[in-house]
Amino acid sequence: MINRAYLIMNLKEEILLTQKLIRFETVNPPGNEKQIAEFIGEMLISHGFNVKYPKLSENRWHVVAERGVTQEFSPIVLSGHLDVVPLSSKKWNEVPFNGEIKDGKIFGRGSSDMKSGVAAIICAAIQIFKEQPPKKGIRIFLTADEETGCYGANNLRSKKYNIGNASGLIVAEPTANIPVTGHKGGLFINASTCGVAAHSSMPHKGENAIYKAAKAILNLEKFEFKVEEDKLLGLPTLNVGTIKGGTNFNSVPDSAEFTIDVRSTKKLSNADALQMLKDKLGEEITLEPFVDLNACYTDETNVFVQSVYDACKSEGIESKLPASVPYLTDASVIQPWYDNVPTVILGPGQPEQAHQTDEFCYVNKIEQAVKIYKNIINKWELI
Question: Quick check: helix, strand or coil at residue 294?
Fold first, then answer.
């Protein structure tokens, strides 16, 4: 008991904050990010930040906080999201919303994706103003409803919310503190087809929509987009994730639908990908995108990227640029919103732990992330 109490007393503020954030159950759906947004906002206000809460809906709030931002300089922007994915069907061995620490790991839903990243950018921003206030200022942008396809940030952008300007963007998604300069885009599509209903004892009098959908899906199983391989992002991918159709077992189904998940690259725009799929599937299949975000990329020779790389190197992180991740992030929305600002994805979470049962993040990675973020801010001040 003495050792355990000593450990708890000596936890750094970023670890304690990660625990507190994990305890907000922001599973999406429904998200309910209002309470965690208010908690974070009040914390930042108490440390001199100006805070606003743009609203996605009554119980779904974003956080936009800034300090030291002036007309003279464009600030660095630190970004993350507040929602987490649902628990998997597999039973957890750990309590999912407690943030317990064992063997140097902090457990809980969102520990890696990405409440540890959110805690680290908050603590780094607070600490830097205590140590050496940055003349360019800092803006923190935390979004609701990211896990469904960056809907929250995209919705805010579509409403023309003014988020100012930026000189560099850090998105604190899980990368194990390895700087990443790009990721694939996401084109998520509802595909549907129609048939003619009939009694199942007389199928010849109907037109089976499930058969149409099945033929379309088989056509997609080995489908390849005829594009050049992207040196950073590789080849685009396609996956059929869900399918449903019909109303009862003894009727010919008159409707069926399935979803298509395309991950695009800089060599394949989402618009071109959609047209290729329409050409392949024909008029029998209706395609309606519900997420449409293009690939994100910043050249590794960019001055901001190089300063981030140097900041990581000074904390013992050796990485080879350029590097990418396959998953989608808010950078797909925020980078073009900021007129293609140089962007790096960098966070303490373990990428392989995202969305997993018994998700965890290494405690030392969170502590390291705070140091890296502070190094990035300090180095960017000198450029």
Answer: coil
Taking CA 141 as the corner, what is the angle to CA 182 and CA 293, rounded to the nearest 5 degrees? 40
Q: If we measure between CA atoms, which residue out of 383, 375, 372 comes closest to residue 116?
A: 372
Reported in sequence order, the residue ranges of 265-310 that DSSP labels E, i.e. its strands, are: 286-293, 296-297
Tell me which residue of 173, 144, 153, 112 sits closest to 345, measured CA to CA: 173
29, with CB counted inside 10 A (0-12, 13-18, 19+), is exposed
Closest CA to 380 of 301, 300, 304: 304
Note whether 2-183+295-381 and 185-293 share their fold. Answer: no
pLDDT in tens, 53-72: 999 999 999 999 999 999 99
Rounded to 5 degrees, φ, ψ at 99 are: 75, 30
Confidence at 88, pLDDT banded by 50, 70, 90: confident
322 is written with which tokens? Answer: 């350029």
CB 379 within 8 A of CB 335: no
pLDDT tens figures, 36-48: 999 999 999 999 9
In CATH, what class is 2-183+295-381?
alpha beta
Long-range contacts, 270-278 (Cβ 8 Å, 24+): 270/185, 270/187, 270/294, 272/227, 273/187, 273/225, 273/236, 274/187, 274/189, 276/225, 276/226, 277/189, 277/220
Residue 1 has pLDDT above 50, yes or no: no
The secondary structure element, H or E, covering residue 259 is: strand 255-264
Domains in the chain: boundaries:
2-183+295-381, 185-293
The token pair at 285 is 């299949």
> 140 to each of 75, 90, 120, 123, 155, how far by Cα in Å?
10, 35, 11, 11, 18
239 band by pLDDT with thresholds 50, 70 and 90: very high
| Residues in contact with 7: Cβ distance below 8 Å, sequence separation at least 6, in sequence order | 101
What is the DSSP-derived secondary structure letter of residue 229? P
pTM of the predicted structure, to 2 decimals: 0.93
CB 145 within 8 A of CB 151: yes
Question: H or E element: which one contains 127?
Answer: helix 116-131
CATH class of domain segment(s) 185-293: alpha beta
Distance CA 309, CA 135 (A): 21
186/37 Cα distance (integer angstroms): 27
C-alpha span between 255 and 195 (Å, rounded): 6
